[in-house]
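Human: Respectfully, please carefully check these tokens:
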Amino acid sequence: QHWATPWECFVAANALPYARTPVFAWQSRYDSNQLDGRLCFDDDCTSRFGRDLQSSLEATMAQQSYFIDGCYRHCSGQGPALNAEGVTPLQALHQWYN
């Protein structure tokens, strides 16, 4: 399906329909690599990106599960433990898996 752009096979939204195992995604709403790569540096662009990302995850991951944090980062990085309403990503994964 992506003969001209084979790198798109690594995009989660394109690969997920072919997954045969359950998937739990952990994504930053403000992924620094994606924002910087799109030259998205102002608040309006960043907010729009975050809204679009969440909408995309809600649609793509309807039969799966995900954890979205609100940090500007790419990987887990250093700093305080992340949580959403008191639940860490690892706790969310545990709750989903069990």
Observations:
- The radius of gyration is 15 Å.
